[in-house]
Structure formats: structure tokens, C-alpha cells
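Appendix C reproduces, verbatim, an entry submitted by the partner laboratory led by Prof. M.T., so that reviewers can inspect both the input and the predicted structure.
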Amino acid sequence: MLHIQNVTDVDDKLIDRSLQTGESVEEIAGRFTEAYFDLLRRLRAEPPTHSPRATEHIEGMVALVERLIDVGAAYASDGDVYFRVRSVPAYGALSGRRLDDQEAGARVEASEKKEHALDFTLWKAAKPGEPRWPSPWGEGRPGWHTECVVLARAYLGEEVDLHAGGNDLIFPHHENEIAQAEAAYGRPFVRFWLHNGMLTVRGEEMHKSAGNFSYAVDVLDRFGGPVVRYFYLARHYRKPLDYSEEGLNEAAAARKRLLTFAADAEAALRAGGGGGGDDAAGGLRLELERLHERYVEALDDDFNTVEAVAVLQDLVSAANRFRAREAEWGAGIREALTLLRRLDGPLGLLDEEGDEAPSGALEEGLLALLIDLRLKLREAAAYELADELRDRLAALGIVLKDTADGTIWLRDVGEHES
């Protein structure tokens, strides 16, 4: 399977940052790209087959723009080149936005260079201090929508099987990709689109400008990659995901149940378990077969990882019920463990290599000690001291929450605000 994840290493935001800091666009793009792929490694995400940089394919972008002009879908105007949205009758089909409706409420900045307010830029004439490349229309740089079409076709050919991205990119970015590709080449561009929901905090979309964000590196430092993976996979990718410390703690507890079962099963096998008669394991074997079918159906159904994760938990429940009925686990133990690890393969929840760093483990241990101390103070009716301990932790950004299952701790979201 070919998996391409392109790197936009020249765009308006990078140029603005360069002008503000004095760093080159190349330096800024390189630093952030390295940091991004480091986070993916910590999440134990499978790396893409290729991660091409936009600046490596400028010639192909110029060629695409020339082709669009030749077929009448684009036009040059004073060093810029624009795409004619009216040249694509189906424009707006992906997002469900009719062109006439968009015109009525267009929030696109008017430009005398454009034939139509919604025409978008394919090539931008260079401004002072900006990166630039030669073209038939003068020096400049490609538009973002054009970059993605060229990179996809360069590595994946004429038609892309799966194209993914955030649901905030459906319009105009993905709509504009389709328009260019299909106008230029006269064939479908993408077979299936996968759009993920946005991260939210207390129902509000997470944005740095809103101050309601957490740095990914901080979350990974504390919880480790596999816990964060569990947190994400326990929610369908198309739906919004509400970020919270409590949610991550719940994910850690749920994942620990899987790890505990795997460790117990491995210990039993090392001790000579896993034998016994097939008759005793027959009931469990049938249950495992049904769970396997559920798992496959779940991932076939629009990558329903919520159900897939539930299958893993149900597998552990089934094996534990079997264990409670039998003096020994018998023949079923090996089959249950083998299937658990097999089904976890695409999910990566049992991978302990990406667990939290020693500093995270120390923090967990110290807080567990303080929570235990507070419990003992309350049992001794030393309520003032117990409350003082809680309040001093709160002042440090650690909130204690008493639940039916005991006291858990959460990091105050305000700690990450800036």
C-alpha cells in the first residue's frame, strides 16, 4: 500500500512567520516538519511511504496550471493565475454547496483581477521578500490547492483510492483539488474521502487563538503514545472528539485492563498452562470466532474503531468468564491471547514501547502517594489538612476528583493556556 503525506513547506502562514522572525521559510518549515513526524513516531503511527515537500515539485505545478489554462479552466491576470469555478458544472458536489448559494453569501475578498469572486488562486505573483520560482506568468509560487493535486498524482497515479483530511478542509480545499484535477484530466480524482472531526474542549473547537489547547508533546509526556491512541480510537474518526484529562485517564484505565489480561495469560502459559482438553475450550473458541467476525465487520464499516476496541474488551471479558468456570484456563488461553494480539495489530493499544516516560511515571507515583495520604487524613477526621492538601494541589494545576471508583486526578486545562 502506498501512503503519501505531503508537506506544505511554502504558504502564506510560513511566509508571515518568516517576515516576523527573520528565519527563512525553509528553516521554519523544516523545524515544524521534524517536530510533527517526531510526534507521529511517539504515537507509534505507521509512517507514510513518502512525505514529499511541495517545493520539490514546482515544475509539475507549473505544468498543471498551464494545462488548466489550455483547457479553458484557468486564466492569467497580472502575474496571478486563477481557476474558473464556472468551468466545473459539478463544483460544490463534495461539500454539498451550490455555486449560486455561495455567490449570494460569498465572504471572498473581491479582486479586480478575478472574473468571478469565487475563482481561486493557482499561481501567486511574487511579493518582495517571498520565496519565488520562474513561470510563464512571471516569478511567483503555487497555490495550496494546486500543490496537493500535483503531489497526489506524482506518487499515486491518475486516481487516488483514499484521500483523508480534517472536515474543515472539505470546502474549499478538497473541493478545489477535485475541480483542478478533474478539469485538467477529465476523470475522477478520488474514490473515497475520509474526513475526521475536530478536537474540542468542553464542546468548543480547540484553537490556539482561543487559549483552550494543550500541546501534543505535553500530553504524550504524561500519558504515552498507546493511551493517546486508545483515547482517539475509542471515538469514531468522523465525529468531534472532546479533549479532557478525565477522558485520557479513562482511556488509560481501559487499556490497562487489556494489558493486565495479556500479562496474566502470558504468565499462565509460562507456568505450563494452555494445555487441557479441547472440549473445555470449545465454548470460548466459538465466542472468539464471533468476536473476530465482529471486528472485521467493524473495520469494514468506515473504519469503526469504536466497535473494534469494544471487541477487544469483550474478548477479555469472555476469556475471564471462561477462566472463572475452569480450574485451569486449558486450551482456550493461548487462543484468546493470540487473537487479542492479532486484532490489536492495526490498533497498537498493547504496544508498551510508547508508554509514558520515566518523568511521567514519577509524577503518577507521587500523586498516587498524595491521594492515599489525603484518604488517610479523611479517615482520621483530619478534614482541614485533607482539604489543604487538595487546595495546594489545585494551586499547582492538579485537580482531585472523588468518584465512585476512588479519587482520580486531572490537570487543570488552564495550565496550558497562553
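The longest helix spans residues 245-270. Additional entries are available on request from the coordinating office.
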